[in-house]
Amino acid sequence: MSINEEVNKRKTFAIISHPDAGKTTLTEKLLLFGNLIRSAGTVKGKKSGKFATSDWMEIEKQRGISVTSSVMNFPYMGHQVNILDTPGHEDFSEDTYRTLTAVDSVVMIIDATKGIEAQTIKLFKVCRMRGIPIFTFINKLDREGRPPLELLEEIEEVLDIETYPMNWPVGMGKRFLGIFDRHGKQFVRFNGNEDETYIPYQDLDKPENQDLVQNSTFQETEDELALLDEAGDQYSLDAVLRGEQTPIFFGSALAPFGVQTFFDTFISMAPAPTARKSTEGLISPDNPEFSGFVFKIQANMNPAHRDRVAFLRVCSGKFERGMSVKLARTDKPIKLSQSQQFVASSRDTIEEAYAGDIIGIYDPNAYRIGDTLIEGKESFEYDELPQFPPELFKKVTAKNVMKAKQFKKGIEQLVQEGAIQLFRGSNDESYIIGAVGELQYEVFEYRMKNEYNVEVMLESIGERIPRWLKTEQVDRTMFDERNLLVKDREGEYLALFKNDFSLRWFKDKHPDIELVDLFEVN
Ligand code: G4P
């Protein structure tokens, strides 16, 4: 098979959602389609309880589980499906965001009983700024949720994206009868117990379907559908692929209902890998020479061996185990002998991979997040990964002042690796660490101690809203504890606002100072 044919088979996506919307449940159903697992309930042991923050081995165990299941791949309907996990809950970190730089599309799950929730908004923004196509699955239709039209309105308003319902539910909870599959022009009838019947629209008139058609909930929904046909957005695959319209699917991951219809349609519409931006212009995925970039580094997966695995997204050509490539940043050759792919709960050695695939490569402490690896003579680097706005901030100091040198070295290296973000106090040059999730601090503390032999003290500054200041002159008197002035690694000033109120207050008081939100500029 040619490289082009291999690439076009690939469907690489991530599932994003707020905790408890049903990501694990839906993922399990998809893995069942791929015959990757035999029964539901085997994807991750997240119900095994919270880990004690001090116990790294426990974190490892937890992380180990989520790492090995962090990329799942299987063949489906002639395609090669790659699902990337986006760690949530207590695992939420910058890695969760960075995973989104390695996918070609995203499935966003929304809980029909709750609508849009906080974590969904954050992850959505990252997809938005990168123009990633987003497919929406509105879950838990087997429960009494919010009216479908209201949910659509909320998605359009809060996320500012056009919606196009690919299907439309008839009833919810106990009254749930099934869905109109607008795309497949059929009614999918819910018979309970994992049983669905597919009735083409033209067969709805048949006598055996009269009980359904005469049902008042069915008839009300027909009116709703007519309204949607008239007043709703027009379906446009182009708009979907540009990330401007999201196709909406209703269903229940648990029942399960509508999952097959959703997945089949999604797989047929989702984009295969496309060209990626580099310092030498766009690089096509069927470019014969191998290239890829590192989007995540997992350190200390096995504390006994101190090994590190770099997760690489293949962007062009063909990867072959043992091949020699070049690390673009240093121009040095590297042999990729230990490579892995991750399937559910085991790690298999991988022999070859194509654009769209994710592979884990052994990291001899050589890689940084965002690094480009290339085969052949060409020289280019893929676009730098964006910096994501941290939300949690802590002041850090070494417990033992005699360890200042190791302390600085450790922080510098971990910052370079992308494990944390570093800021400096504008007055006292104190070290302030920014992170997206609490887990990053746990990993930071552990690694400082184990790799650099420095015990650190962390003092929380709390959750903050960071805004970069676009101004020539910074007047320090404008800032205090509520809008703490700090500098980033490049020496750019930013203010860490205590809450929305202090942000608004500052804006009102200083309308001439432009405040930049990283989510909007990346
Ligand atoms: P997450 O990975 O997004 O955090 O969500 P997960 O799949 O773990 O689902 C969270 C809870 O919601 C689980 O219940 C799960 O069974 C339930 N759930 C998922 N999909 C559906 C659905 O379509 N309908 C209904 N009614 N419930 C759904 P739990 O009680 O927290 O856990 P469990 O003990 O049932 O596993």
UniProtKB/TrEMBL annotation:
<keyword id="KW-0648">Protein biosynthesis</keyword>
<dbReference type="GO" id="GO:0016150">
    <property type="term" value="F:translation release factor activity, codon nonspecific"/>
</dbReference>
<dbReference type="InterPro" id="IPR031157">
    <property type="entry name" value="G_TR_CS"/>
</dbReference>
<dbReference type="InterPro" id="IPR027417">
    <property type="entry name" value="P-loop_NTPase"/>
</dbReference>
<dbReference type="InterPro" id="IPR038467">
    <property type="entry name" value="RF3_dom_3_sf"/>
</dbReference>
<dbReference type="Pfam" id="PF22042">
    <property type="entry name" value="EF-G_D2"/>
</dbReference>
<keyword id="KW-0342">GTP-binding</keyword>
<dbReference type="InterPro" id="IPR004548">
    <property type="entry name" value="PrfC"/>
</dbReference>
<protein>
    <recommendedName>
        <fullName>Peptide chain release factor 3</fullName>
    </recommendedName>
</protein>
<dbReference type="GO" id="GO:0005525">
    <property type="term" value="F:GTP binding"/>
</dbReference>
<keyword id="KW-0963">Cytoplasm</keyword>
<feature type="binding site">
    <location>
        <begin position="139"/>
        <end position="142"/>
    </location>
    <ligand>
        <name>GTP</name>
    </ligand>
</feature>
<dbReference type="GO" id="GO:0003924">
    <property type="term" value="F:GTPase activity"/>
</dbReference>
<dbReference type="InterPro" id="IPR053905">
    <property type="entry name" value="EF-G-like_DII"/>
</dbReference>
<dbReference type="InterPro" id="IPR041732">
    <property type="entry name" value="RF3_GTP-bd"/>
</dbReference>
<keyword id="KW-0547">Nucleotide-binding</keyword>
<dbReference type="InterPro" id="IPR009000">
    <property type="entry name" value="Transl_B-barrel_sf"/>
</dbReference>
<dbReference type="InterPro" id="IPR000795">
    <property type="entry name" value="T_Tr_GTP-bd_dom"/>
</dbReference>
<dbReference type="InterPro" id="IPR032090">
    <property type="entry name" value="RF3_C"/>
</dbReference>
<dbReference type="InterPro" id="IPR005225">
    <property type="entry name" value="Small_GTP-bd"/>
</dbReference>
<dbReference type="InterPro" id="IPR035647">
    <property type="entry name" value="EFG_III/V"/>
</dbReference>
<comment type="function">
    <text>Increases the formation of ribosomal termination complexes and stimulates activities of RF-1 and RF-2. It binds guanine nucleotides and has strong preference for UGA stop codons. It may interact directly with the ribosome. The stimulation of RF-1 and RF-2 is significantly reduced by GTP and GDP, but not by GMP.</text>
</comment>
<feature type="binding site">
    <location>
        <begin position="17"/>
        <end position="24"/>
    </location>
    <ligand>
        <name>GTP</name>
    </ligand>
</feature>
<dbReference type="Pfam" id="PF00009">
    <property type="entry name" value="GTP_EFTU"/>
</dbReference>
<feature type="binding site">
    <location>
        <begin position="85"/>
        <end position="89"/>
    </location>
    <ligand>
        <name>GTP</name>
    </ligand>
</feature>
<dbReference type="GO" id="GO:0005829">
    <property type="term" value="C:cytosol"/>
</dbReference>
<feature type="domain" description="Tr-type G">
    <location>
        <begin position="8"/>
        <end position="274"/>
    </location>
</feature>
<dbReference type="GO" id="GO:0006449">
    <property type="term" value="P:regulation of translational termination"/>
</dbReference>
<dbReference type="Pfam" id="PF16658">
    <property type="entry name" value="RF3_C"/>
</dbReference>
<comment type="similarity">
    <text>Belongs to the TRAFAC class translation factor GTPase superfamily. Classic translation factor GTPase family. PrfC subfamily.</text>
</comment>
<dbReference type="GO" id="GO:0016149">
    <property type="term" value="F:translation release factor activity, codon specific"/>
</dbReference>
